[in-house]
Amino acid sequence: MISRRGLLSLGALGSALGLLKSGSVEAATLVADAGHAVAPVRTLNGWTLPYRLRDGVKEFHLVAEELTHEFAPGCTAKCWGYNGSTPGPTIEAVEGDRVRILVTNRLPEVTSVHWHGLRLPSGMDGVAGLSHPPIRPGETYAYEFTLQDAGSHFYHPHADEVVQLSFGMMGLFIIHPRAGEPRPIHRDYALLLANWALHPGTWRPDPSVMTDFNLWTMNSRMFPAIEPMVARTGERVRIRIANLSMHEHPMHLHGVRFQVTGGDGGRWPESQWHSEVTTLVGVGQVRDIEFEAVAGDWAFHCHKGHHAMNAMGHDLPNFVGADLRGLGKAVREALPGYMPMGQTGMAEHSEHVAMGMMKGPPNTVPMMGGKGPFGPLDMGGMFTVLKVRDDLAAGDFRDPGWFSHPPGTVARKLSSDPDFGQPVRRPDPA
Ligand SMILES: [Cu+2]
Q1: What is the distance in A from the centroid of ligand 1 to the CA of 181?
Q2: 22 CA to centre of own chain
Q3: What is the residue-wise DSSP string for 204-271?
Q4: I need a labelling partner for 180 at 20 to 30 A (CA). Which of 40, 223, 230, 408 fits?
């Protein structure tokens, strides 16, 4: 399989040598197209769809199909997506481009593709039955329109939507401004938030679940199986966050104050930008955030606690504070090996996982399983790390490992005695 970077450099090389003729496969060679230094988008754990140039039209080909998808090692499912992946490949083009997007339906039922956020002729809008006939199994349809709207958009079916969305059919559609970015963007990340109901021990998401989902993903992956975002200190970074889940996500970035600079309705005038550390991304919405990178390892995650965890056993009894010594002994008589947990909190789950003591049901990953430089990370789901370093080469997206903290800048242990010090406590009201 050719890596995304390989495709991009092939495309750039082809353009530079003037080798790309009409009909040849071209990657998103956006610099050449726009005549400006436009950084291509980096879809975490994802890829950008190459196109063919035919008579000045950029032709993309999406194939709707079933596939086997890995959310994280140990957790896979039969999903639906495009061209072998969920999310489908990112479509990347430039404002003013004429695009033709072929959609082949290899699903067992009808589908369509809606281009969310794009202004286009009504018959190209992709609502099956309203804009055009449903695309039946085996058929290929062509959508063709001119891109008017620079910004962060996405695509998804508008036919049997609940099933097709809950199986993973979605992708990003990024349109770069023809005149270039008003402020140079050095690292441009894009991700799609989604939720899934994959019951432990099963291998197909359950489309009948309406709100009580158990997997929370960025680009259909969950931490710790989500790539880090990397940047060099001082670079301007954009993160485009699209939400095609059924819940809203307050997305929180540590270490900087970012500006919210736009949404699926395009880039906002600077007078409307606002400074935040958490921004709510509503259902069916996109929010773009931009900031200057500050050295360190910084968490980026949904602030709803259960969305930054992997599958948990819902309806577990609350054991926090309970004395379970007798319970373990009693239950072990019927269930050898039973070990009650949770009386001190949930963190011991991740310690047990790290020690190899805990095994869940088949086809799940532990609800929190990330490993950090100082121990278990107690996170999962919609969580990843922004790694900013002083010495990264431009365009180097490799994981630089953990941050080397300058001396004296890491919180340190003073004592192991719980009675340490003279803390001020609220006086007893009695
Ligand atoms: Cu969330």
Answers
A1: 30
A2: 34
A3: S--TT-SS---EEEETTB-BTSSPPEEEETT-EEEEEEEE-SSS-EEEEESSSPEEEEEETTEEPPGG
A4: 230
Measured between alpha carbons, how far is 172 from 205 in angstroms, rounded to an integer? 21
Q: What are the structure tokens assigned to 389, written together?
A: 């370093």
Report the separation in Å between the CA atom of 329 and the middle of ligand 1, taken as the mean of its atom positions: 38
Distance 72 CA to ligand 1 centre (A): 18
Q: What is residue 91's DSSP assignment?
A: E
At 397, give phi and psi (nearest 5°): -110, 10
pLDDT averaged over 10-residue windows placed end to end, the chain, 430 residues? 39 37 46 58 97 96 98 94 98 97 98 97 98 98 97 97 96 95 94 94 92 94 95 97 97 98 94 98 98 98 91 61 72 69 64 59 71 87 96 93 96 96 90
- Rg of the chain over CA atoms, in angstroms? 24
Cα(133) to centroid(ligand 1), Å = 35
Decide if 286 contacts 240 (C-beta within 8 A).
yes
Distance 138 CA to ligand 1 centre (A): 36
Three-state helix/strand/coil letters over 1-41: CCCHHHHHHHHHHHHHCCCCCCCCEECCCHHHHHCCCCCCC
Per the CB < 8 A criterion, the answer to whether 362 and 200 are in contact is yes
Distance 302 CA to ligand 1 centre (A): 5
Q: Which two tokens stand for residue 296?
A: 């360190």
Two tokens, residue 392? 């990264």
d(CA 301, CA 383): 4
d(CA 327, CA 338): 10
Question: How far away, in angstroms, is 218 Cα from ligand 1 center?
Answer: 10
DSSP string, 272-328: G-EEESEEEE-TT-EEEEEEE--SEEEEEEESSGGGGS----TT----TT---HHHH
The DSSP output letter for 85 is B
Largest Cα span, the chain: 85
Q: Is the peptide bond before 224 cis (omega within 30 degrees of 0)?
A: yes
CA distances from 202 to 116, 182, 199 (A): 31, 48, 6
3-state helix, strand, coil in the chain (%, to 5): 10, 35, 55
Q: Write down the domain spans for the chain.
A: 4-188, 313-359
Task: Give the fold, CATH level 3, of 4-188.
Answer: Immunoglobulin-like (2.60.40)
